[in-house]
Amino acid sequence: MKKVVTLGEIMLRFSTATGERLAQANELTVNYGGAEANVAVSLSHFGFESYFVSKVPENHLGTGVERHLRSNGVHTDFLLKGGERLGTYYLETGIGERSPQVIYDRKYSSFSQMDTDEISLEEVLKDASLLHVSGITLALSAEMRELVLSALKKAKEYGVKNSFDFNYRGKLWSQQEAGEAILPLLPYIDICSFGRLDAIHLLGMASPNQPLSQTEELKYYYKKFSEEYPNIQYISSTFRSVKSASSNDLQGNLFANGELYQSKVHHIEPIVDRVGGGDAFAAGVLTGILEGWEPEQTIAFATAASALKHTVHGDCNVFSKDEVFGFANTESGKIVR
Amino acid sequence: MKKVVTLGEIMLRFSTATGERLAQANELTVNYGGAEANVAVSLSHFGFESYFVSKVPENHLGTGVERHLRSNGVHTDFLLKGGERLGTYYLETGIGERSPQVIYDRKYSSFSQMDTDEISLEEVLKDASLLHVSGITLALSAEMRELVLSALKKAKEYGVKNSFDFNYRGKLWSQQEAGEAILPLLPYIDICSFGRLDAIHLLGMASPNQPLSQTEELKYYYKKFSEEYPNIQYISSTFRSVKSASSNDLQGNLFANGELYQSKVHHIEPIVDRVGGGDAFAAGVLTGILEGWEPEQTIAFATAASALKHTVHGDCNVFSKDEVFGFANTESGKIVR
Amino acid sequence: MKKVVTLGEIMLRFSTATGERLAQANELTVNYGGAEANVAVSLSHFGFESYFVSKVPENHLGTGVERHLRSNGVHTDFLLKGGERLGTYYLETGIGERSPQVIYDRKYSSFSQMDTDEISLEEVLKDASLLHVSGITLALSAEMRELVLSALKKAKEYGVKNSFDFNYRGKLWSQQEAGEAILPLLPYIDICSFGRLDAIHLLGMASPNQPLSQTEELKYYYKKFSEEYPNIQYISSTFRSVKSASSNDLQGNLFANGELYQSKVHHIEPIVDRVGGGDAFAAGVLTGILEGWEPEQTIAFATAASALKHTVHGDCNVFSKDEVFGFANTESGKIVR
Amino acid sequence: MKKVVTLGEIMLRFSTATGERLAQANELTVNYGGAEANVAVSLSHFGFESYFVSKVPENHLGTGVERHLRSNGVHTDFLLKGGERLGTYYLETGIGERSPQVIYDRKYSSFSQMDTDEISLEEVLKDASLLHVSGITLALSAEMRELVLSALKKAKEYGVKNSFDFNYRGKLWSQQEAGEAILPLLPYIDICSFGRLDAIHLLGMASPNQPLSQTEELKYYYKKFSEEYPNIQYISSTFRSVKSASSNDLQGNLFANGELYQSKVHHIEPIVDRVGGGDAFAAGVLTGILEGWEPEQTIAFATAASALKHTVHGDCNVFSKDEVFGFANTESGKIVR
Amino acid sequence: MKKVVTLGEIMLRFSTATGERLAQANELTVNYGGAEANVAVSLSHFGFESYFVSKVPENHLGTGVERHLRSNGVHTDFLLKGGERLGTYYLETGIGERSPQVIYDRKYSSFSQMDTDEISLEEVLKDASLLHVSGITLALSAEMRELVLSALKKAKEYGVKNSFDFNYRGKLWSQQEAGEAILPLLPYIDICSFGRLDAIHLLGMASPNQPLSQTEELKYYYKKFSEEYPNIQYISSTFRSVKSASSNDLQGNLFANGELYQSKVHHIEPIVDRVGGGDAFAAGVLTGILEGWEPEQTIAFATAASALKHTVHGDCNVFSKDEVFGFANTESGKIVR
Amino acid sequence: MKKVVTLGEIMLRFSTATGERLAQANELTVNYGGAEANVAVSLSHFGFESYFVSKVPENHLGTGVERHLRSNGVHTDFLLKGGERLGTYYLETGIGERSPQVIYDRKYSSFSQMDTDEISLEEVLKDASLLHVSGITLALSAEMRELVLSALKKAKEYGVKNSFDFNYRGKLWSQQEAGEAILPLLPYIDICSFGRLDAIHLLGMASPNQPLSQTEELKYYYKKFSEEYPNIQYISSTFRSVKSASSNDLQGNLFANGELYQSKVHHIEPIVDRVGGGDAFAAGVLTGILEGWEPEQTIAFATAASALKHTVHGDCNVFSKDEVFGFANTESGKIVR
User: Fold this and answer.
1) Which of A246, A280, C271, E161 makes an SS bond possible with E190, Cβ 3.0 to 4.6 Å?
2) What are chain F's partners, defined as 3 or more CB pairs within 8 angstroms?
3) Residue A304 near residue A329, CB atoms below 8 Å
4) Quick one: pLDDT band at residue D335, thresholds 50, 70, 90?
5) pLDDT over 90 at E329, yes or no
């Protein structure tokens, strides 16, 4: 089994039941999750030896994180304990026309205040095939940006593939700040994930001169980008058409070898929980790449994994590789008995 | 803050969980609500000093009503205590093709048996900007019809605007009875709400000679009606296209200054709870009128408020003015994080 | 009231909440059900004196079966007690594109190991108007196949109408086995239920020479079949178009007097629980036949009953004859108050 | 199986979860129950052919009553349908020092407004061994008192044993009214149930001249009473020592053949739900009498049945005769595995 | 109605269900509470015009606080909105021998970072009869200590009675820090609450020379203390004998006019939720003082209020003055019906 | 970290909510557990590298077992997948005087039908410090008895300590069968657990000649037994005094070096869930032995661990070594904040 490593923050999510407002709630559902942790969980279910690097407080919530990761087969050897608190956020679940709403309460978390020398990058990256990080970590502090850069460099030294998901969060920083933080990392990246808006607003790429279809426009940015960063062999993203908070269309894009590969469009309705949908997709793409699948298969798998994630509560894609393939290949919604 | 007053009955609603039949239920969800109380709650959330006039029994259920109103910022100074019982009703929640079903158990309630002299209309209406009542109260008894008439007259004396929602309920009385009860009130009304069926069956208005579109037909009735009652400056209603118990299209209509203003069509799917949707609309219309907004803005706001109400459990629109505007103006269903 | 009898296995179903995976569940919903038991329940609600013949263990689960049947008005005089265990199965509820999944744990059940002489067929069938069985029972063992054959023969002796639902379950046996088991029963059947796939794979019927519409093709098989088995006066089935696990279109077919009668298409969305949908349909067809309704009315009733079943949790159609007619005849989804 | 008949009102009970106040509740647990219905349920579980005579509305709540009774094996042949409403009551569950609180909302119920000639007492009592009624029914109206008297007389004609439980409810009537209503019935009673306070306040019996132990005093009243009414062969009651709402000691008393037989003291802690505890006791006593057991066995059985009832939610004793005996005879609280 | 004011922090409490560990929880119950807010709620239920002064964030959680207070009749005119976050804490509910456990996550809260000049003490205290604060607020920061001191001084100017509850929390600061912070406030206090351990460790009072009973020792400290601070007319505390997390004995003490008055001992078992028990007691004492009751009545009322609080979930004593008196005066645990 | 190994069956437990009967349940709580699995979980929480050897089916329930074990840090390297079914059992939760009741449905399970050569005992036992098995496994089949014997022998070869818990289950086999199966294993055991009844009925030991106290009698059996089996260095058991299903007293006994060491008596009330209480105790004893603690400390720790287990739902002791010590050493039930 290949060893894969993700590094980032994991938080406690409080969500309301469907049709309830946060200010009226008597009970909240709790889930542990974070972009990179979710990718680690998916990769474990897809058959990798998966490690998650982070820091959580030395209390019952830290233990809760540990239980969550372990139950999903993720190794917690590099999950540090200490610091002040576990970051949390509140999700008022959306439905129909009403959007979900997020209140972050993640400042001063153990992870965001971790010293960069608390982890031995050597130990973490030894024998690894992949390191995955995301823009959310960069947004937390200058120290975190430093830590990520060191990790990416060290990974290159060790022959580990680097994956980076832009994961832009407008509530954490401005597009300009994000762009500036991401640029210096790009030379160390092998696989990355960003979309049209990121291309324009974070990378400052110029729009094409003539109007193009959504697909053609994306291809345009990816081509230009990959000419500038030939080290980046794979770029991925999804087209998400939000009909309502309960109904989305989802299509996956994977750019590889100068070509754009697209999955079929998944019509996801009703949506049970869309948190972590992007992370399931990212893990799917990484799986295909690590397994050496054809791009067509990779993008079909990744998008199916993401669509499946939308049908379960919680941040994580708790489906095995076989289940994702089964889902991708059979007629949707049929009962087998 | 402007003082607004609504008068009517508030009941205890027992509802089944989705997919459960009433006869099999082991647990029922309880909510307090009633057309006029719901309007009072909305008006409070929209920034008015809101009073609800009614009578509830002197027991834990009466206290429950009080807690419900207060938690929503509604003043309970004119909520009398006493009498025999709190009216209740049972709602077997519908879904898909299966309609919701209502069993009323509201007879002999404290409110319906209240003496008309138990309330001091002077105190209630002093300094108020608006009085809102509905046809449901008229259906309860002759005494109630008298009380409503006195209140409307007294309001006129005090310079208070009168709002009347037809709110016809076929389980309470016949269309003829309703028509006869409503007619004498109309000269005292400033703002009212009724639809095509009410125009024909309650007001006995003649259908247009030639076939008209739904919108044109409504305009036809409103025009004729406003010629007869020039005191009524605003008439509103909604077009509700019921695709199923889980999926409705909703469009708001506001007739003002001889013109019919229409909101965009909201596609509401899935519906969480449609009870109180009309009351949220009414409160939205009243807010626009009291705030002196343009009719276009008023009807957009009112219909958005109603659509939002359908996405939460309970009778009440627990969204602030800002939230309704945010909802009306942004792309539906997007998560912001 | 006419006496009707169904014979088969009843099991304990464990289902996950929507959006939960079985492997993560902390709580499971429990329901008692089985194809023939479900038909018995429906027939009781439709006004027949309904008996269910089966065997359950002498423990609290056997008592649970008894309570379930009795609460639905089904007579338990022929519900034997004894044997090793109650068969169970686990249902991971599907949603949207994700199919429901079934894990059977029904082997060694009291019913499947019942001796064929434990029941007195004479007593069971005395004065009955109808005996209903299904292919699921045939799949359990050679003894069961013998028991069913004896029962059908005895019924013929007693002048009881025999109904047989193919109910093919791929997890229990092969199509070939099923076909071989069913053939010898057909001469004793008056009413039966099977679809296009059954015609081809179980009955080995040849496809029509030219491409036909779905309806025409079904008619083709039914015609040929009824020529071979003139004793079978009624054949029924449904067309189910599975858009997703949450959205199906359903149309009922009834072949009688050489004609195919079809119901309107019910658009069922969202689906609450589709288990037992076919049994509700079967009971509806049987009701129409026993009541001597016109085929048009029978198939409209049966399909409406099935559509209604999809809107409630559990295996059973807990709607009365009047409710099904009300549902079939009124505009869907309207609230009446 | 002996046929037994009980006659009375059945209501819908709404109860709060432990530790919740009614005025704050978002959900209420619903149970159907009433003194005489509960006795009918127990008698069914104890092996009798049990009939409950009452009237409930023709709606889903009436259906709920029917399902409840049938699931417990009670025959509903004499359960009339019609009238205005089902009586309800609210129970704020007590705990520890805090007492449970009841709010009745039972006026105008279908049963309380039933005409006395709606039931054919002949049919009801034909071939019956026992008729059981209670003082609660007497409290409802003069018509009900008449009905009960007629039933008791008719029962005597038919050779049916009459059982009467005083069941005094201070919220329904005064002790004086109760006493006056009960007196005329006593000549027709064979088995009755009342305690020390009833003896003094309802029957107006004089206290003994010298201070006696609790047991001796009860014996004193029973002796005097049975001398006055030699037709009454059995008198029963319980001593309940209320340590708190969660902890009671319970001892059963049975007076027969001039002797007082007492059960052991059951220490019931924690109490799950004490509603129906007295009805379980009554049914236990009746079972012993109908079965011809020794008084010692009867009172042990009845008190054990009542203690068991306190350990389950709902009004009903859902334990079989064997289970009650098992409970009475084994060491309490041991797990068997 | 007398106006009363409390000032302090209100937090969101997350609690586990009984028998669940925090690290395994999938759902948490949420309650809003804080010592001074709880006192304000009780005082509102006891008939005062109650105001709570604090600061909460401008988000759905801030709205939740508002709803909570308003539903309990507390005025929110002085509830500021703004700042970073709402303080939270996690409660792993204890049971039997296992203690409850608290994890605080309250740093950086809006209240703790409020500027002292954000509130107009003049407006807050105008026409008030009472100001109540507690040692928890002092523990938050030097600014808070300053704010409290200013408020107490201003109150004295305005003729408002000052109440201070030591409320020592070992997780927030050391006993020495607490003692130093409290001393300067004492000259401005009229009513205060502390126990034996506070006397020794916070106030540094010397133990009596000879061994005394628990009651005598407390009297000794109170006497000495009241000689030093003759301005303090009332001192109160409870004796809590913790048999287990589910069973406590509680007795109230009130020192007034040089005498120690004690309530009866309440045996509280099982305990539903002991959070807020002390605040209910404090509010009871204040009520008696403000109402001018005899000390005996005051301490009986206060201790009964506290005992009642232990029987409901949440931080607040949601019982009226009448209910507390009813509880104090009737036999515990009896059902009235 | 020392490697420890346990071998046995793990099952799915379905339990009713408190106060509910199994035959009426609509929902059941699910837990995975089994004596040896529970010991493995405890040992993991106490700091050992813990392995559980068993076989579960290749389906979602097998995955559920895996998730359960992993979330508790137990290694699943030797958890085989395959076979027919996962054994289950139903627990009707007891309360007060009413005992819990168990219905086993564990026959034909994957584990019970596992071939003895499916596991490589060499790999399993390599580098292990401890092997723990119990009498439940012996009861399943002759093959299982063989497997256990081989494992114990192989362990001796490898220098692994063997622990054996008698765990007699009367529903699985007779005392005589159990005795005969256990005898041949005893020469290979280092640590074992049995009580007075096992000594008499399974081991056939003679009672002492004179009446002895409970403690003295146990010591008598342990002395005699250890003289016969000098290889067995530690014998343990608990005295459990069952006051009711909700209240037990528990005291631990450990015989070592010819002495009997006893813990203090834990009064456990209320009991949340007693399943697994014995396994928590066993794991505590093993921990002390493996850590080389003094017998006094070992038995205090083990009994505290068992008492703690009774306060949480589920089969497993989810407390760390520090938490157990904290519990053992602090005053019970105090809140720390």
Assistant:
1) E161
2) A, C, D, E
3) no
4) confident
5) no
